[in-house]
Write a structure and sequence with these properties.
Layout: H1 3-6, H2 23-35, E1 45-51, E2 55-57, E3 65-71, H3 77-94, E4 98-102, E5 105-107, E6 117-125, H4 144-147, H5 156-159, E7 170-175, E8 178-184, H6 185-190, H7 197-212, E9 218-220, E10 231-238
Antiparallel strand pairs: 1-3, 2-5, 3-6, 4-6, 7-8, 8-10, 9-10
Helix pairs in contact: 3-7
The protein binds flavin mononucleotide (FMN).
Length: 239
């Protein structure tokens, strides 16, 4: 299945079989990560697969394996991490595996590659029971008209993106063929301590737009973006 097809079917999975993914699958995952596209090619990142024993979960469920994302701390690094991880989220779900982003879990040992910091975990594994794909109508999401200056159906992949506590902190301002992406700063206050998560969410939404427009998606930052009260400029893109 293509990554694009997963955008309208994926869901967060929170119930996993104890059986870890086979070594061949993990090899495929590593191969996929090597060719995943960064949002900011100048930011060094490192991703590794860790077992559940290496992770402190702060919720009542566990996944057998997780992807740990580390990055240099440079402007845009959280969006970049979300962008890379969401490509893997779609890929894993296309293989029949379940996934869930985990803001509320930490690595037990904080051994980071030099010059980098730990960013976030993406849990994955075989779902318990049948593969829980869903239809578009089952997504609990804001309407297109609530997240964009124009209800342009090309923004649908961003609308359907997963976000921390389903906060959907994005707004898209259209200016001819360019879209400007903004992140809610009210959301940042509302989720005290989880503030940075919203920047990861923005990268996730952009990754879904990239997955749906692989040949044409272009991301850039404007030097003098339009200011919007209560919103922070993240970047602009063409589809
Ligand atoms: C950055 C990020 C962090 C998240 N952290 C958690 C978490 O700690 N625990 C959890 O159960 N779900 C977590 N989620 C999953 C969201 O709750 C979920 O994506 C959202 O409710 C939308 O549901 P869906 O993914 O099934 O469409 C996280 C999602 C994102 C994007």
């Amino acid at each position: 299945m293509q990554l694009q097809e997963m955008i309208e079917k994926r869901r967060s999975v929170r119930s996993y079989s104890d059986t870890p993914a086979e070594p061949e699958i993990l090899e495929e995952v590593c191969g996929f990560l090597e060719q995943a596209k960064p949002l900011y090619p100048g930011i060094q990142t490192y991703m590794e697969i860790v077992d559940k024993e290496q992770v402190r979960f702060f919720m009542p469920w566990k996944a057998p394996q997780l992807l740990a994302i580390y990055s240099e701390n440079k402007p845009g690094y959280l969006e970049n991490a979300g962008f890379l991880g969401q490509q893997l989220d779609l890929f894993l779900q296309s293989l029949g595996l379940g996934t869930c982003w985990l803001g509320l879990a930490k690595l037990r040992e904080k051994t980071c590659p030099e010059g980098m910091e730990f960013v976030i975990l993406l849990a994955f594994g075989y779902p318990k029971g049948e593969v829980p794909l869903r239809s578009k109508e089952q997504f609990r999401r804001k309407k297109l008209s609530q997240i964009a200056s124009e209800a342009d159906p090309r923004l649908e992949p961003a609308r359907l993106a997963p976000s921390s506590t389903n906060s959907q902190p994005w707004y898209f301002l259209r200016e001819q063929e360019v879209f400007h992406a903004y992140c809610s700063t009210k959301g940042l206050l509302r989720h005290k301590g989880l503030g940075d998560m919203n920047r990861i969410d923005m990268g996730i939404a952009l990754a879904q737009l990239y997955a749906a427009n692989m040949g044409t998606f272009r991301f850039f930052r404007e030097e003098y973006p339009e200011k919007k009260d209560g919103w922070e400029y993240i970047g602009s893109f063409r589809l």
